[in-house]
Amino acid sequence: MIELFKAFLFGIVEGITEWLPISSTGHMILLDQFVKLDVSNSFYSMFEVVIQLGAIMAVVVIYWNRIWPFKISHATGFSAPRGIWRFIDKDTFIMWIKIFIACLPAGIIGVKFNDLFEKLFYNPTCVAIALIVFGIAFIWIETIHKGHRAHINSIAELSYYTVILIGFFQLIAAVFPGTSRSGATIVGALLLGVSRTTAAEFTFFLAIPVMFGAALFKIVQFGFVFTSTEVVIMVVGLITAFLSSIVVIKFLMKYIKSHDFKIFGWYRIILGILVLVYFLVIK
């Protein structure tokens, strides 16, 4: 029961921190310092990535009508779409092309050097520094943008050049835990003149192939043999991550309609300082 409670706690933390720009990986690393799951190192390495599937399923459920590209057209006549285009929403299809392009930097470089990045940077000090640096970035960007209107207000308006640049910002998060994948892509999008709502939505959609790919990679790497306890821990973590993500995503989209991201910047800075003090001074 204690291990199930721990899995429940990991799922809650994942669901909250995956979508708020405060770094899910960073929080999971820090949580692991205080709440240790009684599992093997190889299982935990897989678990902390696969648990993200629960979070990403929340995006799929909430935005299903926006992300599913196959829709039957009932139009008839000379101007009706022909062939395969009758079953594909062209705007959604183009959006997925943009998402694929934005995934390329992290997909190519991040996967190739994943083990090296984990060895070099997956530690509390690097997490704390990344939390502080990107916290400052959020505050700075929101300050200089105050009073300025975004010139990109929908995903359809994102150019291919813009999405590849956002993809490189996502790569920063793949290298440095504590940066936050959502935080890095949102910072990049804001710098490029994208509105907060569009930046957040594109970040959500961008997470779908990234997380599914990362989870599949970790499962294959671990193998498909699980104990009954490991299965239960996975299920509890996935369900709690899914349910908490539903709440957090709806909250964030409502919040940013009338607020900026500064509060998350200040949170990151304060947390980063506390982490540095604990691990460099107290521990």
From TrEMBL:
Enzyme class of the recorded protein, top EC level: hydrolase
GO annotations of cellular component type: plasma membrane
Entry EC no(s): 3.6.1.27
Source superkingdom: Bacteria
Localization annotation: Cell membrane
Signal peptide: none
Membrane-spanning residues: 7-31, 43-64, 93-114, 120-140, 160-179, 199-219, 231-253, 265-282
Membrane topology field: Multi-pass membrane protein
NCBIfam families reported in the protein's UniProt record: PRK00281.1-2 (NF001389), PRK00281.1-4 (NF001390), PRK00281.1-5 (NF001391), undec_PP_bacA (TIGR00753)
Known role: Catalyzes the dephosphorylation of undecaprenyl diphosphate (UPP). Confers resistance to bacitracin.
Stated family: Belongs to the UppP family.
Name this protein carries in UniProt: Undecaprenyl-diphosphatase
Gene name, Swiss-Prot/TrEMBL: uppP
